[in-house]
Amino acid sequence: xxxxxxxxxxxxxxxxxxxxxxxxxxxxxxxxxxxxxxxxxxxxxxxxxxxxxxxxxxxxxxxxxxxxxxxxxxxxxxxxxxxxxxxxxxxxxxxxxxxxxxxxxxxxxxxxxxxxxxxxxxxxxxxxxxxxxxxxxxxxxxxxxxxxxxxxxxxxxxxxxxxxxxxxxxxxxxxxx
Length: 177
What we know:
34% helix; 5-stranded antiparallel beta sheet; 4-stranded antiparallel beta sheet; alpha+beta; 177 residues
């Protein structure tokens, strides 16, 4: 009886540790191979159903609308997401719509921890798959956003533009930075 219990216990331990090892290997493999095309943390805004979509409006230090964004961890030390080429290809050469006074409406799902790389959307389509280290080395600005707002989908771009013109973006949308 003891040998049967020991055998079952050993199989349990083997299963637990092999699953943990497999998961660790998957994470290591994803970190080595950027061609796995990790999605951005927020799905592409174009892929979200309009009724649940949140619209990100931001003001940035410079015009980064033609550069590839990536997501970093909160401490800004590690990359946790970047767009697949296919996601950006459908947008043309811009990741955001310029509205007015330095404000943009996001098209790809940037968030508070997003940064922009020196890869333009156009050049990103032509290069080999960059490694995570190459992405890190191409970061233009670690803190690109001066302001960021989340607006819900009941507003359209024209209404958001009016909020910006009238200075009421803060009262109609949620300011996160």
